[in-house]
Write a structure and sequence with these properties.
Blueprint (H helix, E strand, L loop, with lengths): L26 H14 L13 H12 L12 E6 L2 E6 L14 H13 L4 H14 L2 H4 L4 H9 L6 H6 L1 E4 L7 H11 L3 H12 L13 E2 L2 E2 L2 E6 L8 E3 L4 E5 L4 H14 L8
Parallel strand pairs: 3-6, 6-8
Antiparallel strand pairs: 1-2, 4-5, 7-8
Helix pairs in contact: 1-6
Length: 278
């Protein structure tokens, strides 16, 4: 599925459900996200898709940002689901294949597409996961956790080899391994305890778990994707940010190690509020 630009258009096929849905990408992360939403009694939001499938989220965002009535998109309240090679047309509402998507109803369409892809398309797996969770943790207590905390609760604190992490890290936008702020960064990371390491990994990649085989097998939205630290312009009080779908940590070029320490700790404390999907 392609990402839509301002001068581009999309069709029903750009919003179809692929075989396996999101469970082919990050099973535990998806299940924790949906479980967190359900336990709080809130619907999933199209922005929840961003860290899992940024292109799909971009297509939905494009619909919301542009007037579509005169573009001839021929979108209807239906999508095609590909399950094990068999294509099936799924109506989002009764008679949806005959109801065109317009500027007036596109918000409803985006919400229905999101719910279909993130819940109904993997409904059996979600229900089984919830049954297991509620056997161990009472429903009211599950609602206290967000999806990131829930993943840590289920999988536990990982053993993170910082040497392996550092050896499989790339740098961009003017940074290299000899840049002062990069050396300070790794000095700080080597002093982190297990919980801080897991929080940093989760902040930068969207998951607290190290892939089988180590950091050389880290996966992003487009396949194998190494952890990368990218330079962004420093301004006072600016915090690090992350693009989790690309395992990308956006690190300002702080003038001192102490400022870096303070800003990084604050970013990790804030966690998901600083995720930047690009």
């Amino acid at each position: 599925m392609r990402s839509c630009q301002c001068d581009d258009v999309i069709s029903n096929s750009d919003l179809d459900i692929p075989a396996g849905s999101y469970l082919d990408f990050e099973p535990l992360g998806v299940l924790c996200l949906v479980t967190s939403a359900r336990s709080k009694g809130v619907p999933v939001d199209y922005r929840d898709v961003e860290s899992i499938d940024p292109e799909y989220a971009n297509n939905l965002q494009w619909l919301l940002d542009h007037e579509i009535d005169n573009l001839g998109l021929e979108l209807t309240f239906s999508i095609e689901s590909d399950a094990f090679g068999a294509a099936t047309m799924v109506e989002l509402i009764e008679g949806g294949s005959q109801i065109p998507v317009t500027d007036q109803n596109k918000k409803q369409y985006v919400q229905l597409v999101t719910e279909m892809r993130m819940t109904q398309a993997i409904g059996a797996q979600i229900n089984s996961f919830l049954d297991g969770i509620y056997e161990m943790i009472p429903h009211p207590l599950v609602s206290l956790f967000d999806e990131y905390e829930l993943e840590l609760l289920i999988s536990g604190l990982p053993d993170i080899n910082v040497d392996d992490w550092k050896a499989n890290t790339e740098y961009s936008s003017g940074y290299d391994k000899d840049t002062a702020v990069i050396q300070w960064f790794w000095e700080l990371v080597y002093c982190f305890d297990r919980k801080e390491l897991a929080t940093l990994l989760q902040f930068a990649t969207g998951s607290s778990r190290v892939p089988l085989g180590g950091f050389c097998n880290l996966v992003g939205a487009t396949g194998l994707c190494k952890f990368t630290i990218s330079r962004i312009e420093y301004t006072p009080n600016k915090l690090p940010a992350a693009s989790t779908c690309f395992n990308l940590l956006k690190l300002p070029e702080y003038p001192t190690k102490e400022i870096l320490r303070e800003r990084l700790q604050l970013a990790l404390t804030c966690e998901t509020g600083l995720l930047d999907i690009t």
